[in-house]
Amino acid sequence: MNSSSSPEVSGDRVDSMPRTSSPSGKVAMIEIENLRKHYGQFEAVRGISFTVHRGEILGFLGPNGAGKSTTMKVMTGLTPPTAGVVRLAGHDILENPLEVRRAIGFLPENPPLYPEMIVRDYLSFAAELRGVPSKRRRKAVDTAIELCGLQEVHLRLVGNLSKGYRQRTGLAQAVIHEPRILILDEPTVGLDPTQVVEMRSIIRDVGKDRTVILSSHILPEVQATCEQVVIINHGNLVIKGRMSDVLHRNSGDRVVIRLRRPPNELSELEALPCVESAAPLGEGRFRIDVTHGAERREELIQALANSAFGLYSVRSETSSLEEVFRDVVLEEEQA
To answer: How many domains are contained in the chain?
Structure first.
């Protein structure tokens, strides 16, 4: 991949990168253009570009060492870029760093909590640090407590909270000053399934009137929460687009069929035209990978209809985000 070129958006592999333009009626809240970051001779981020609009929740993904944390550090002002332009809420991070910090809320993987403080006092302290005027501070704390579901624990010591409530408290400090942009790094790490579902609901509520970047290794949660997705690997942007487009990138090449009279051997299905592979799913159902092309899929359906198997149903199968992630990272490695 040519890391100096810009990406095309549509849920497909990135091969070129024209400057992102805002769709009609949408306001760009995060604009990253040809971002590069070097640590000595090592290039951690290699000319990535993407845009996130107001009210969107973006899943920001990549394997360990891909450059995600570096990109988020640049966005939050913790480290300067080597090259490129980063604008948040219309402010350049180098030209207007204070305005950028006012516009963002950040929840790192390990929230900056003080275990010896009461939750309400900690949030009041966070509001003061964020420059919330004293006359508005109590209201800001009350709003954050309600938004993040902390009503039952707001008078308890932070150190006595469960992991789930500590994560909620960390999220509350990130929204205490009503930022327009939220950057969340592994917000559900270490949570049990019930807490994960609760945190997902909170993130959706928080994201109704904010722009959110969510970085996580729990891909089903990203799939359930985010509308947009960006995947990077080795500092390169390898895919970006709407979640629905990304998940359907291979749907034309995979179908699930159900047969009234299933074959005894998979080889009988794999011998049909256009079939690359077949896998049993039980109860007469099979997953079929089809030779690329819509007309080839139609040819397979016709062959099944004319066979002795008794075609009962056929449908396209949408890829999971985990499958897409694995495929695009592998493709980028091979390229």
So the answer is: 2
Exposed / middle / buried, residue 327 (Cβ in 10 Å: 0-12, 13-18, 19+):
middle
Residues 239 and 274 both lie in one domain: no
- Residues 235-251: tens digit of each pLDDT: 999 999 999 888 876 55
Domain assignment of residue 162, given as a range: 28-247
Write the pLDDT tens digit of every residue in 20-34: 445 446 899 999 999
Query: For the chain, how big is the Rg over CA atoms in Å?
Result: 24
CB-CB contact of 288 with 256 (8 Å): yes
Backbone angles phi, psi at 81, to 5 degrees: -75, 155
Residue type, 139: K
- Per residue in 288-309, pLDDT (tens digit) is 888 766 567 788 888 898 999 9
What's the rounded Cα separation, in Å, for the pair 82 and 137? 37
Alpha-carbon gap, residue 167 to 291, rounded angstroms: 46
What's the CATH code of the domain at 263? 3.30.70.120
User: What kind and span of H or E run contains 182?
Assistant: strand 181-185
Edge-first strand listing for the sheet containing 228-233: 104-107, 181-185, 211-215, 57-61, 228-233, 236-242
